[in-house]
């Protein structure tokens, strides 16, 4: 091969003008500040395709140049890029001119493919990254959190099948037989329990959670929007959830959550940019922020700066960097800055524990109506995002001879209608991806209608769907539970339960 690393490092690489404009678009979409970042993504994406790359016509107008040592790095990194491109070309003798043409073609094809995947992901950055990870056949995260102690990293807390009675009674209305649901054998371990106020949905949820705890010491993280979950004992005075799980009750901001919630798995530029993008997506869900394109760029830049320089990074650090960014751009402070100021007024999180340490213990997070809505939303989303990253940094849990998958953590959201419809990306990822990692999610809400605002059809990803008496629209109930499921005619303590591809009418309590 008549080419040297020195030549490659000093060469000017370009793609065509239209593709270069798309490269700039991706900088804005992904909150990247350097042109070479989307270019690297695009070239990588093209290299995953086995078909030969088509070289563009010579008459195409070219875009801006990027030096080889900027586009590919130096030393080992440059060597690896060069080897991959030459190997994919299948040409033993490539000179610098030929390499420049191949890189421009891969850059162009990769951007076109990324643009397609961006559209398929609904322009949602979390789903977009998930699609790229799936294409690359990589783990869902690039590393592991520091271990909490010897032998604790990635620990699972169950062996064998976890099979629970559906409710305090759990009896088929017709046959009078006991009705059990296998949480971790075969189907999805997630559950959605719905019903109007006073219908008994929380009674059933608590009974299931106690049943799980009796069989395995799986930790629980529960979000309590009413404020009474920790002491909830059900209708028969059973052990409370707080006692059963030995859970610590926390009520931010009165008591900050002792988690390094913005901890990074990887501290390289890609890891920082990815984490900053995830924070921006969480922040953009707040009602007070109302981010436009310019604000989204500023928030990403502020988060990336704070995460790169502050260890541990806290919300107040992002607030300070956001003010700096606005000053540098001579922009007037707006809703984004005001919302960050409000979120930083009281400490919602205190970085005392790593995610590995935190998610191996049980917590009940109280978020009653007295807590500001934006504060409640950011607490839920950042915690779910940290849980999602933590689980996906671990290897898959073991599957036993009976097909049961070990459990690592339970996540329960009571009164979930308070956040459903805000399209939290972290909740969507957990429901779609956490099963193989030992995660199980339980959503307790008022009606099947609550799920209609979500981009993902959560109810189709639930191993168990139970519905008590509610005024849900007939179409929603039929879609979820099948024909004949009349939720308005249920008696006290009764519900319809769909699991294992069947629907049963049961006496739950």
Question: What's the rounded overall pLDDT mean?
Answer: 85
Q: Which class of secondary structure composition applies to the elements?
A: alpha/beta
Unreliable residue runs: 137-152
Q: How is the largest sheet built, in terms of strand order?
A: 4-16-15-14-6-13-12-7-11-8
For the record, the CATH class of the largest domain is Alpha Beta
> CATH-wise, what's the superfamily of the largest domain?
P-loop containing nucleotide triphosphate hydrolases
Strand content: 5-15%
CATH fold-level label of the largest domain: Rossmann fold
What does the radius of gyration come to?
Answer: 26 Å
The end-to-end distance, rounded to whole angstroms, is 76 Å
CATH architecture of the largest domain: 3-Layer(aba) Sandwich
Shape: globular
